[in-house]
């Protein structure tokens, strides 16, 4: 049985609150420490919570939190800039329906659920150092305060301060060659897309949009930009200037991109910034400290799996700490997660290359993708979407085999056939 009774969770975004709830379910008292002095409920664009993310939240009886604020995404329709339909795919019908959410809404909902469960979230605590003894780990914050517990979990995102302390030689985020924008519109002037997200490989940029039954909706753009640009640098260009750039990029595309961009006011434009990923972090833990979510594994947003993978990892980490001493738990957790998350990161990187394709690449993609999509079966996506965590199954001790992943019984039956 584990001897872990208390935990410090560094980071109060998406992964941090979910980690704290998972630890609480495992019988571990967790406190969340967030660097920002205020809540971050106005930050971020749209994202999807995949069926596997909903299943992981279901382990915590928290999946309804997302379903209450999300819009169902029953499928994704792929199109070329000429209007040609390239294909359509969705998650297997027996799984929960993917949800599209706006990050501020998701943040607020998870924050409220975490505090409702009696978990403390403390603001204004920016991590600067970690020390430990044989009995505890201590987090030291920039304001001079500190806190101690049995373990420390770094859930502080892509530019994790915890990661820099655990693995100072780990590579930093990798720029994908794309800058991301988005907007939420109360009136789009377009007909409903019937729960489907449309993805347009534009002539000069990538455009995604979904229109709801009431005529509202949202869009996002991935704009190729060869020179790396930080978020701060991107935001030095005004929203009016970026909208002009985006409207020009989609001026000749046979898709509603230009119409939606013309309906977007500068005040509503979200300049999300550079799309980045984190292909591999060699070390996920050191001593009593461990990483979770984007701090350990960050796919680009093209994967559609960033938040869902973070949720999965939070639940698996808590399960390991429930059953094993912390050192063994961290080893088992990494063995359970690394192969799956790095495969997803690589998948997102391939999508980014398609979005930033040149003239020849666009021509080949538009010719070959419809043929390839005809042979895509739902089972192809099972490894992503039908990942399930058996909370009640004990985590094997060191030296015992630990499965890298688990899919649902229906997919296993298909494999046997």
TrEMBL record:
Keywords tagged on the record: Monooxygenase, Oxidoreductase
Gene Ontology MF terms: monooxygenase activity
Protein origin, superkingdom: Bacteria
Domain FAD-binding: 7-340
Residue ranges, annotated region (Disordered): 398-417
Pfam families on file: FAD_binding_3
UniProt protein name: FAD-dependent monooxygenase
Species of provenance: Plantactinospora alkalitolerans
